[in-house]
């Protein structure tokens, strides 16, 4: 009798496990996807951000950026900026293009700009990340003046062009997402397309050290106030008849030359850039740990023309 009860208990347990594995614990349909009737997908609702560029929102954002945001950034990292004289060559709105490896890049760019230009600068942000919830969307819009763009294909958003036409500068990270190891990824053509389509210059920017300070996966910078450098380059303008496909490599090369300048000297980097021999900033062909190790080496000061944060 006892043996029968033990066998019954084992059989029952096995049956319960089998049922549990096949049970629909969620609300998924029982039929396979291929057998479901086709339904036209609903259009996603775009979070409105026009309110973030009203005079009241601009005033609030100015207080937030120059107050707590600036204080926290200076407390956590040691930022330096150079090349701001390049911005004096602008006569109207521009597209600011930079490499992207950390969430620090946005506040670093914003707070390195002259105040008048900073107040008229908007950031293109991934709709599926920064605009997936209302509180994240509203927070990024009011603090950083972001607007959503789709980075997974689809038609080009009309918002960047509208902003440029209204006199706003637009920041674009052409890699589409943060670098997983600190090295530059492939540049997409969105920024080049906007520059050609709206006949505006592109300001290349090289950001060095932000990955080491706050790599992807961290929610806060590492201790010790690591050095982070932001270097602006001269404006680039599409040539007469130049296509976005031809202009995009010039933008990527300019950013690479600025990063080369941070690693060596101004003269050496300019000489290499003049003959098209700037070293690639895509990193070594090696395992991920080696690429991360290379991109987090301590930086050395290469010249005396950098200025500290205000």
TrEMBL record:
Compositional bias per record (Basic and acidic residues), positions renumbered to this chain? 300-310
The keyword Glycoprotein is assigned to this record? no
Under InterPro entries, the record lists:
Plipid/glycerol_acylTrfase (IPR002123)
| SMART domains cross-referenced by the UniProt entry | PlsC
Record's CDD domains? LPLAT_AGPAT-like
Which residues lie within the region annotated Disordered? 276-310
Q: Which Gene Ontology molecular-function terms are recorded?
A: acyltransferase activity
- Which UniProt keywords are present, listed alphabetically? Acyltransferase, Transferase
Q: Which residues form the Phospholipid/glycerol acyltransferase domain?
A: 94-210
Instruction: Write down what this protein is called.
Output: 1-acyl-sn-glycerol-3-phosphate acyltransferase
What organism does the UniProt record list as the source? Kribbella pratensis
